[in-house]
Amino acid sequence: MSVMNYAPVSVFSGEIVDGVLEGYAAPARGLLPCSIGLFSGETAISYARATSFSEAAEASGVRLGWCGFRLPGLAQALALEGAVEVRCGVTNAVLLKPAVDVSKVERSSRLVRQVSLTEFLTLVRSEGASPDVARLAIFASDHARRHGDRSFLHAAYQTLFGREPDSAIMEVWDGDGLDIDEVEGFLSDMVESDEFQGRAVQGIPGPFQSSFKFDRGLFI
Amino acid sequence: MREAFLQIGALFENTWTGIPNVVAALAEGALNDPDIKWGFLFDTLEVPEAWVREFLTRRSGLGGLGKLEALIWEKATINPRRAAEAVCIFPNIKPVRGFFGREASIIHDLSPLLTPQFHNQDNINHFANRIREDIATSDHLFCVSNATLGDVHSYFGVPRDRLSVIKLGVDFDPVDITAASLSFRPDLQVEPYIAVLGTLEPRKNGRIVLDYLAEQPHFANRFRTVFVGREGWLDGRKKLMDALAAAGVARDRVVFTGYVSETEKVALLLNASFCVYPSFFEGFGLPVLEAAALGVVTVCSNSSSIPEVAPQNCFFFNPQEGYEFARAMKFAELRAAQTRAAAQSLPDITARAEPYSWSRCYPAVAAWIKEQ
């Protein structure tokens, strides 16, 4: 793993919820997110990027809530019979040695559900996605304030449609002094549009997903 | 300590494929190399190291060109006397020639010259007008494959001691492998599908896949076909899709993903029954290496550099021959049925990918700089 893309964990909270490790992990400062790993002895079982939205983190005032994680693999870790540990993805420091009640570890359903490819991709994309337009609007509004309305328009189109705005809208666009409600309204219209709803893989990008093109200076 | 510059113009692209990924690998190596004093350039303008780190983190250069406009007013271009003492690596077409004391270029392929039928005239003219002088003014040429090295040697008469091959690579973030792996979603099974790799454009020969589906509609019923990559200019896509529908293949059996994130790309490759890479011509063929590192078989054409990439994991065919393609598809389907699901844990995949790491790309460039 390229440690260039991650920062050491400074704030950590984790627990087993319904048999899966969940929580949040945040760096001391800066744009880089944290990654954490689940180990059985010295064997790495799984890794997660702490970039999902966490209401618990938001309530604790940590990183606007954008440092949540869900770390799968407890069943596999227990199967290897090593000491189960959660470690920082950069420093390898042990963050948690969960006391695992084997009976409560996530069990696979006896029924295996076949999903379409697009359903699967939507599931994959949901990790780190914005839970709603309002959370996206916080960054979009800050972007408009820092970089101006035209830059906001470009970033909004790139983020939600994956393309540049049409020249027609650029000619008539007048978004000077957009307040956050207007930004949210504009983004909501985009999300409800046929173009966004017609995309094969759904999901509103979160600030650490590659399609997110707004400024992330709020994390600094 | 030797001062060296890396041209990073490709990193300013919004979405990174191909050349930007090569530049990113070199930039990452440079940032971690204490033995060379590296600087980063957009033409002759020095770009702050912090920008490079930010681009590498985001895997995108979006917004960079706007910042560059401001930088032009704030900073002068680098001093010619300083440049004359330095080495410069050009990962693509050279914006300046003979400006640095020693210059090396990376040659990806001569495709616009060797297969002009797949390029528009502007692209051919731009390439043709630049490449000869770029080659002539470079002290060394790094080629991304033996096939490209052979082409440069044959068509431009460059002696072999001025040529060497740099190894391209793949690096998977274990986070992406975890997110992509169905072993962590044991209650899910994804429908069978094949992944066709690469931007949609005529050179990539996606048409042979759609022709095959039209002739073999039962295959389309067994496997959904997913074209992974940016929409390019696949001629007559609508006509081909109409032909598919007329042959009894429902339109939803073919999916075009457009650009996908790294996580989504890993998920698509890792869970595919097998991959298809039917391109007519490639300087290297990175998607074939990515599939092989993930343990997935690829049906790929036997042209240009492609057979060099991961022959042990491929079924080859002549990209002009539909019959050979059909035969390779049958072999791949049989092998995939026999070998899927083996060795797909995180340690397995990490160990399999390790020999192909991007870290093997930078050392050859660093070694050449230290010799200057």
TrEMBL record, chain B:
Ranges of residues in domain Glycosyl transferase family: 191-331
Domain of life: Bacteria
Pfam families, sorted: Glycos_transf_1
GO MF terms held by the record: glycosyltransferase activity
InterPro entries attached to this UniProt entry: Glyco_trans_1 (IPR001296)
Gene3D superfamilies: Glycogen Phosphorylase B (3.40.50.2000)
Transmembrane feature ranges: none
PANTHER family per UniProt: BLL6006 PROTEIN (PTHR46401:SF8), GLYCOSYLTRANSFERASE WBBK-RELATED (PTHR46401)
Protein name from the UniProt record: Glycosyl transferase family 1 domain-containing protein
